[in-house]
Amino acid sequence: MAEEEKKEQTQEETPEESQAAAEAEEKAPEAEEQAPEAEAEEKPAEDAAADEAEPSKEVDAPAGDAAEEASGDEGGGSEDASSDDEGLDWKARRRLERSRRSGSAGPQRSPEERAAERAEGRRSAVRGRSAHRRNRRQKRQAGSGTPPAERRSVGRKVRQGRVVSSKPDKTITVRIDIARRHPAYEKIVRRSNTLHVHDSGNEANEGDLVRVVETRPLSKTKRWRLVEILEKAK
Question: Which CATH number fits domain 158-231: 3.30.1360.40, 2.60.120.560, 2.40.50.140, 3.60.40.10?
Answer without folding.
Answer: 2.40.50.140
